[in-house]
Specification:
The structure is a single chain. With 356 residues, the protein is an all-alpha fold. Helices cover 68% and strands 0% of the residues. The chain is built from 14 helices and no strands. Helix 7 packs antiparallel against helix 10. The radius of gyration is 26 Å and the shape is globular.
Length: 356
């Protein structure tokens, strides 16, 4: 009887020690990659948002310096061993190749459309700079109206809700509207033909962007990035060519009020690559006005590039805790969800019934 009790006790002690070693090794393995819970593979069930927030808080406490621009770099949080295992999957390689092919087609179409419009503007507005800027600003603010229209429709249907997207896109449209007011004050809309052309292009551009954004938000954001990039280059060339003359001219009153006004909340809101209150322009002459308009276009370009990764956009005034538990829709890692259509498709393919 004593022998049996002794053997039973020794077996229990050895089992508990083995379990402790397994738990310790498992903890060591998981601690190598502390971001695993935030971005799990699509084949595994997602962890709760509260646990991800705890991990993010721990990481944030350990970080010494955080660069704002790093938030827009697409990074994979899978470790090397998991990457090799995922890349070896034939299904994953074929889907990634197909996705790259689709992205290449989308960007090619966008570049072709942008180049076509640029050639028309170069032909019609070779020496009429303010009229060209008026047409550009009338067109440039249209996508943000289209984005908000589609997002409001999704909210009405209860499909998708992202408050930060609406805030940032409205701030972008507010900024572009003031660019347009500046060009009107400079006489860019003096000719009837310029107003007719700009308004009709804007109308068809709105319809096209609504359709494109409903099909592929990634493509719509890339198209807007191309437009904003062209606007930046146009203003940059104009400043370099006419800089000395612009410094002798006074700034329009609407520009002074917008860039140096008391409430610059919306001015900070569209600049998602920098923290609030980090940019406060000075407006002494017309040169400063165009310099700031050019910098605004650069900020729009950065935001449109960030938006091409689904869920990557956040309002500069939003804290990480705001709205974390109120977001609805499909919750996938950012590296796995680049558009609304892709989001729905991957949520269907990763469902338990599909996996069986």
């Amino acid at each position: 009887m004593a022998t049996a009790l002794s053997s039973t006790a020794s077996f229990a002690i050895s089992a508990s020690s083995v379990k402790a070693r397994n738990y310790s090794s498992s903890f060591r393995f998981k601690s190598r990659n502390p971001l695993r819970c935030c971005c799990p593979p699509s084949s595994r069930p997602l962890l709760s948002r509260k646990s991800c927030r705890i991990q993010a808080t721990i990481l944030q406490d350990n970080e010494e310096k955080v660069e704002v621009e790093e938030s827009f770099q697409t990074k994979s949080f899978l470790d090397d061993e998991e990457k090799d295992r995922v890349d070896e999957s034939p299904l994953n390689s074929s889907s990634s190749a197909l996705e790259r092919w689709v992205i290449r087609i989308e960007q090619s179409v966008n570049i072709f459309l942008t180049d076509s419009v640029i050639k028309i503007l170069d032909t019609l507005y070779h020496d009429r700079h303010y009229a060209r800027f008026f047409v550009l600003e009338t067109i440039a603010r249209v996508p943000y109206f289209a984005f908000m229209s589609v997002l409001h429709m999704y909210e009405s249907f209860g499909w998708w809700r992202r408050a930060d997207y609406l805030k940032v896109h409205f701030a972008e449209s507010w900024n572009e509207m003031h660019h347009l007011l500046i060009m009107e004050e400079l006489g860019g809309n003096a000719w009837w033909f310029d107003r007719f052309l700009a308004q009709h292009i804007a109308f068809f551009y709105y319809l096209m962007t609504v359709f494109m954004y409903a099909i592929s938000p990634r493509m719509a954001y890339h198209f807007s990035e191309c437009v904003e990039s062209h606007a930046f280059e146009t203003y940059d060339k104009f400043i370099k060519a006419q800089g000395d003359e612009l410094k002798k001219l006074p700034a329009p009153e609407v520009a002074v009020k917008y860039y140096t006004g008391g409430d610059l909340y919306l001015f900070d809101e569209f600049q998602t690559s920098r923290p609030p209150n980090s940019r406060r322009p000075k407006i002494d002459n017309l040169y400063d006005v165009f310099l700031n308009i050019r910098d605004d276009e650069a900020e729009h370009c950065k935001t449109m590039r960030a938006c091409q990764i689904h869920g990557n956009l956040r309002s500069p005034h939003s804290s990480p805790e705001d709205g974390a538990d109120n977001e609805s829709g499909c919750i996938l890692p950012q590296i796995d969800c680049e558009g609304i259509v892709d989001c729905v498709k991957k949520s269907v393919t990763s469902s338990p019934a599909r996996q069986k």
